[in-house]
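Researcher: I'd like a candidate sequence for this fold, 112 residues long. If you have to choose between options at a position, lean toward the conservative one.
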């Protein structure tokens, strides 16, 4: 499967998969390998100023079927907080892999 982008679709309560800038699927769960975490500063500023919904943070990577290991760390993004992806409270911009679960939680395996 080609590389894709993943972000939380808050109204549908699922994950949106985008390839080449176009949404190709909505899924309950997905796992990615070789993840780059992207925060779009302009979108983040608009969301904070106008309190509107807009995709301002996403994960890019290659879909994988790898199961989430016990050592995975909770991955969080708070648009009104730090404005960065956090793993165990520390900002990160990349991960070896990430899992986006049906309950809306996200988990990552940090690169060594």
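Model: Candidate sequence:
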């Amino acid at each position: 499967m080609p590389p894709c982008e993943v972000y939380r679709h808050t109204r549908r309560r699922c994950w949106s998969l985008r390839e080449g800038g176009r949404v190709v699927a909505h899924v309950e769960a997905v796992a990615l390998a070789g993840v780059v975490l992207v925060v779009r500063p302009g979108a983040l500023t608009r969301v904070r100023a106008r309190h509107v919904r807009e995709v301002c943070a996403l994960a890019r990577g290659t879909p994988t079927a790898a199961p989430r290991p016990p050592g995975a760390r909770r991955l969080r993004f708070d648009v009104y907080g730090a404005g960065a992806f956090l793993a165990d409270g520390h900002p990160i911009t990349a991960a070896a892999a990430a899992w986006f679960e049906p309950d809306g939680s996200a988990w990552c395996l940090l690169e060594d």
